[in-house]
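hiii, so i know i said id send this last week but things got crazy w the move. better late than never?? heres the sequnce for the chain we talked about at the cafe, plus the structure i predicted for it. fair warning i was half asleep when i ran it
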Amino acid sequence: MNSHRSRPAVHRSRLICIALVSAAALLFQVAQTRLFSASYGYHLTYLVISVALLGVGSGATLSAIFDGRPKRPGLATLALASSASAVVALLLETHVDPAAALAASILIAYFAGALPFLFASWIVVRSLREDPTHAGVLYSADLAGAAAGSLVAFAGLPWLGAPGLYGLAACLSALAAVAVAETRIRAGVGVILAAAMTVALTLAGDAIAPPQNGPAKRAVYGENITHLATSWDPHARVDVIHYEGLPTGQMYRNLIDPGYAAPRPDAHFMLLDQSAATQILDGSGDMNVLRASIIAAPYEVVTRPHVLIIGPGGGIDIQNALIHGASQVDAVEVNRGVSGLMRGPMADYSGHIYSAAGVNVVEDEARSFIRRSTERYDLILMTVVDSYAALASGAYALSESYLYTAEAFDDYLRHVTDHGTLAVGRFYREPPIEMLNTAALGIDALRRRGIADPLAHLMVLRYLDFGLLIARNEAIDAASADAIRRFAAAHRFTVAYDPFDRTGAFAEGLLRTPVPARDDRPFFFASDPGADVPVAYVILFGALVPAVVLSWGLLLLPLRRRMGTALATPIGRRTTVQALAVGFGFIAAEIVLLQRLTLYLGQPALALALGLAALLVGAAVGSAASARGKLDVRRAALGSAIILLAAVVLLEQVTAATLSWSLLMRAVTATALCAAIGVPMGSVFPTVIAAAGAHDEGLVSWAWAVNGAASVVGSILTVIAALVLGFTAVGIAAAAFYLVAALSAAARPRAASAVVSTARPAG
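okay and structure toks below
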């Protein structure tokens, strides 16, 4: 039982192998997420991520079943299998048409997408089973590799695209095989083949792995479609296409007076993840058509305004501001792929709108930009910063948006001048839930500013499926209301809500509409007061059921039968509780932390890559420190619970106090905070592994599988809890899970304590 103490230090080649396959797995996960977000939509992407975690857990099951046999696959074979399966997964996923065979494409996503994680996990679990006394060092290599993979994915995606990242993941896994191979010829051939595939996928990704258009997605190749450009970034795949044979101006007709007879400029179509659409108007055309657009209404009550545009996209809002005589136009675009195309390949076509005189476009997250800004604007404009198609399918119901929260609208109005205007465009469908929710956010923000009758500060216009909220810090006076009414009548638009005539369906609906989203619960699109069961809960239930069934059937049941009565012993029960608690606690803490960093850093992709990398590096340091034997489960888990509670209480205060700092300094601060939080969290699971392995190496596989199942189910339950209770409550719950792990360790029998203590590695 104590023979592990005499084993030499773990071989460096084993650590390199683990780090490389872990980096490859995270690269694969990023590529998989980007590909499926583009081709299938947010809700199906969510299922794929859950299945990736199932793959991690399944590696533990296979390790327990096969590693005790005389003939078992070597580490190099497993690494090469992970490499090959990454490329095979890409080819399978991109050659099944989801429009024709959605069920088949989802099954392929489940199983082909899980294989690279399965083989990588098998390598890690085998290493832990064979040497549990060095669990801290081995798990540290796993976490450090994943952290590196996060940063490489962030930096590499704009250059390689998602298909190229699949190839790079295959390269790293093949290199892992080289690190541990006894004869390196086969592994070297694998590296060469993976490198060649990476180059091919980078240069001709769409030809080798063509993008599929799943539910609520638009085709970017096909009959009467001219594909003009593609750009990848961590936020979205961006395509520019042109539909041949359509009447000029057809792509933006839902904004324009139907009676407008003068010439209109042609337009390209820019798609984000093959759904969210924005028009790029031909800069050589006559822009006077925008004077007859519904988005021109706010300019009826402002003169030569200083304008802030949130999400300029293809530039139509910038063109609109310039044609109406704006004195200065600032615009905030979160997607660097969009701004790169608009400054590059689309610059000539658009009339160089992103660099026009008086225009300043910055790449940033709008909320963070506004919070740091000292400017006040005459007009802040935000026009449908998402996709109607995705909304119609419910795909965005789980998408967090900090642009549509009560605090966001408060920020907007604080940066509007006393006589200025906030204008927010949303889709107007019957019943007009989105527009009612948008107006409810404006009402709440006005009340926050001490306004007793916020309904006097709003007007709402409608044309076809588009609605426009106009909100002002001062009450809308009779002259302004009359100007907007005349404009609407002249262009055949409808006034859905008038502060001087508070009758009609929209006015009645406002009285029944609660505040739909706050920063702590930023799920604007999940709010549907009229629905019996909101679509967000349907999606989550659809994700939760297969996650539970597959976790039990593929991870836990095979191991449970194999472990037998060992799971009924005190150490077996304690290991189960601790692995569950750590799995739930870590995934909940990770999600909450990354959410908080989005507003702070101002760039969601950077927040994800840097925050995740720093958290994993901190966890790797904690894991390595646990190998020295100075921490047990109780102290490590208790330290994690304390630091998580402190983070829940203090993180918002720290980020608010440093929000005005430069991006570099905020990134350094975020890195330090995440790493500090990760150190104690990373020390818990390896101490659980070491304690379990000291009694029975089979418990190592069991702990890994239980932890993986908890991560799968926990990722879904975390979103459910955030929807219902908010992210602050989720952070408190994460701390509570670590407290459960600490209490279970404190309750162990005295005899078991002595055994665990003698199993600690030397030093």
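btw The two ends are 19 Å apart (CA to CA). thought thatd interest u
miss u guys!!
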